[in-house]
């Protein structure tokens, strides 16, 4: 899956010459925590609520609330934003974006093609993609199976599901400890009793079952 399939297009933005209260107003109005800072369609930085909080007068200050508000209003986005911006291509794999977010400890990446802003990808977008890939909300049955970590196991598993005319909609494998792996399989049927029996006979252990009937 690619970034362009999960990014938010036409994101809300702010320019570097706007005041901090202006940026906060955009965030509050649209319920976002981060804004790309743009010059035309070119991304020049990113501003977040955390950036603004770090630049705001401390609660321990002797300034009055009115004085603190005045000082914050004098700050521009350019003074507070993070730069240079960390960006990602719309053709990057979603996993690449996830690694960038995790390694850099950030929550949003502007998606840039050439010099132009195409959208943004956030931690929430990555989580939604994870849920979709595992088929957690899809109709049917999700089986969590413990199997030997050896060649041919997935082939045997798919052969068993095919014998019962069940279609595999999703599959994920987690390499476990020693010689075991955990396989998550999403099937298009709520009736998996016979499949489970055959899987058990083939040496695979059913760890969990989730049935979605809606």
UniProtKB/TrEMBL annotation:
<dbReference type="Pfam" id="PF01842">
    <property type="entry name" value="ACT"/>
</dbReference>
<protein>
    <submittedName>
        <fullName>Acetoin utilization protein AcuB</fullName>
    </submittedName>
</protein>
<feature type="domain" description="CBS">
    <location>
        <begin position="7"/>
        <end position="63"/>
    </location>
</feature>
<dbReference type="Pfam" id="PF00571">
    <property type="entry name" value="CBS"/>
</dbReference>
<dbReference type="InterPro" id="IPR002912">
    <property type="entry name" value="ACT_dom"/>
</dbReference>
<dbReference type="InterPro" id="IPR046342">
    <property type="entry name" value="CBS_dom_sf"/>
</dbReference>
<dbReference type="InterPro" id="IPR051257">
    <property type="entry name" value="Diverse_CBS-Domain"/>
</dbReference>
<dbReference type="InterPro" id="IPR000644">
    <property type="entry name" value="CBS_dom"/>
</dbReference>
<feature type="domain" description="ACT">
    <location>
        <begin position="142"/>
        <end position="214"/>
    </location>
</feature>
<keyword id="KW-0129">CBS domain</keyword>
<feature type="domain" description="CBS">
    <location>
        <begin position="81"/>
        <end position="139"/>
    </location>
</feature>
<dbReference type="InterPro" id="IPR045865">
    <property type="entry name" value="ACT-like_dom_sf"/>
</dbReference>
């Amino acid at each position: 899956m690619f970034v362009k399939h999960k990014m938010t297009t036409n994101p809300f933005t702010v320019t570097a010459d706007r005041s901090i209260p202006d940026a906060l107003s955009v965030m509050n109005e649209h319920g976002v925590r981060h804004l790309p800072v743009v010059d035309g369609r070119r991304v020049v930085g990113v501003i977040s609520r955390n950036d603004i909080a770090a630049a705001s007068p401390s609660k321990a200050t002797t300034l009055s609330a009115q004085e603190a508000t005045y000082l914050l209003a004098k700050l521009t986005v350019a003074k507070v934003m993070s730069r240079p911006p960390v960006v990602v291509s719309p053709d990057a794999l979603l996993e690449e974006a996830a690694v960038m977010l995790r390694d850099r400890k950030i929550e949003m990446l502007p998606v840039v093609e050439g010099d132009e802003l195409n959208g943004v990808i956030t931690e929430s977008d990555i989580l939604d993609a994870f849920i979709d890939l595992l088929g957690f909300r899809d109709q049917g049955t999700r089986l969590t199976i413990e199997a030997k970590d050896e060649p041919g196991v997935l082939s045997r598993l798919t052969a068993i599901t095919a014998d019962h005319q069940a279609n595999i909609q999703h599959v994920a494998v987690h390499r476990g400890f020693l010689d075991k792996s955990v396989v998550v399989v999403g099937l298009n049927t709520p009736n998996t009793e016979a499949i489970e029996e055959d899987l058990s006979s083939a040496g695979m252990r059913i760890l969990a079952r989730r049935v979605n009937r809606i």
